[in-house]
């Protein structure tokens, strides 16, 4: 099977495509379902392109960014983060996390400090400069997201949220055999209107 790279070579369904011709699964039961899938594919491509731009701006790989986002979000909510937490969240080995943490410390993106509750363990926290870099890099995603969300009623958003959570859980079960417990791809605001 030939794989295509780059955003311009991705295979997608257009409005003229018949949902029954979709490569990956059975067609949805309705044309609205087909339109929804096409809209999600468009959103996915836009998100991938936006993420690629953010990664390029940060000069980091996707796994490092996911780790840093997790650390920032957990720290922001007052939670302690240990390297072992990243093993569970990122679904990688302890050895891979050790290398990742070392890389982020060398880059000045996180700091390692002794765990106040366990002298044998360490706690990792994001640096202020890393938080600023992440906020700037993902601002082009977060700002339009908030603007579009604010265009919908709470009832409409509740449906979108319910759909998103169910789809994320289903995909997580398929890929990891468990419910998703990882962070959202975007930083959560600490207060209303704050990015």
From TrEMBL:
GO terms for biological process: response to stress. It comes from the Bacteria. It holds the Pfam family MarR_2. GO terms for molecular function: DNA-binding transcription factor activity. Residues 1-29, 172-195 are annotated as: Disordered. Residues 33-169 form the HTH marR-type domain. It comes from Labedella populi. This is MarR family transcriptional regulator. PROSITE patterns: HTH_MARR_2. InterPro entries: HTH_MarR-typ (IPR000835), MarR/SlyA-like (IPR039422), WH-like_DNA-bd_sf (IPR036388), WH_DNA-bd_sf (IPR036390).
């Amino acid at each position: 099977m030939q794989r295509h790279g780059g955003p311009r070579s991705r295979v997608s369904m257009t409005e003229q495509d018949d949902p029954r011709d979709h490569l990956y699964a059975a067609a949805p039961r309705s044309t609205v379902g087909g339109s929804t899938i096409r809209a999600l594919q468009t959103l996915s491509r836009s998100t991938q392109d936006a993420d690629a731009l953010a990664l390029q701006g940060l000069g980091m790989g996707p796994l490092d960014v996911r780790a840093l986002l997790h650390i920032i979000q957990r720290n922001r909510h007052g939670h302690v983060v240990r390297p072992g937490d990243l093993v569970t969240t990122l679904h990688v080995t302890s050895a891979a996390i050790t290398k990742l943490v070392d890389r982020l410390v060398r880059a000045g993106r996180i700091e390692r400090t002794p765990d106040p509750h366990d002298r044998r363990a360490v706690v990792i926290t994001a640096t202020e400069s890393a938080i600023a870099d992440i906020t700037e890099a993902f601002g082009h995603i977060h700002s339009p997201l908030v603007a579009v969300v604010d265009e919908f009623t709470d009832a409409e958003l509740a449906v979108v949220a319910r759909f998103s959570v169910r789809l994320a859980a289903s995909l997580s079960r398929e890929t990891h055999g468990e419910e998703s417990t990882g962070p959202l791809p975007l930083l959560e605001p600490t207060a209303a209107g704050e990015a």
